[in-house]
Design a protein that fits this description.
Blueprint lengths: L1 H20 L13 E2 L3 E8 L2 E10 L4 E7 L10 E10 L6 E10 L9 E7 L6 E5 L1
Parallel strand pairs: 5-7
Antiparallel strand pairs: 1-5, 2-3, 3-6, 4-5, 7-8
Length: 134
């Protein structure tokens, strides 16, 4: 009887460790993301109210998250120019796979005028991206 209880407790402990550590990454950003990680920007384009980018980074074992953010104040020109950059965050990822992914972000907060267009100056991308809106 004691042996059965000990085996059941051991099995439960192993299953709890695997349940907590072997689950695929959640769709939301975990609280344990610790630092900004390097990546390569392969392509970028504006489609409607979204900025799309093809990114390449190393990893494969941990969840990786990309967020678009301002990279300085809007430049007062015609049309206005907004510097932006992609931020890549992840827990340290020991895997060495080369991942290529397409990410997107809403760019309506970066409108420089009520109507018309704004140039997005994306860090790591040579050409300004034209964001036109009604």
């Amino acid at each position: 009887m004691r042996m059965q209880i000990a085996c059941a407790v051991a099995l439960w402990g192993v299953s709890m460790m695997c349940w907590q550590g072997c689950r695929p990454p959640a769709a939301t950003q975990p609280k344990s993301v610790v630092k900004e990680m390097a990546f390569d920007l392969m392509d970028a384009w504006v489609e409607g109210d979204s900025l799309h980018a093809v990114v390449r980074y190393g990893g494969g074992c941990k969840a990786h998250f990309f967020r678009l953010q301002k990279n300085g104040p809007m430049l007062k020109s015609l049309p206005p120019k907004q510097p932006v950059r992609w931020v890549h965050r992840s827990e340290p990822d020991p895997c060495r796979a080369l991942i290529v992914d397409t990410v997107r972000a809403d760019i309506t907060p970066f409108r420089g005028t009520p109507h018309g267009s704004t140039f997005l100056i994306l860090t790591g991308w040579d050409l300004p991206l034209t964001y036109s809106y009604p």
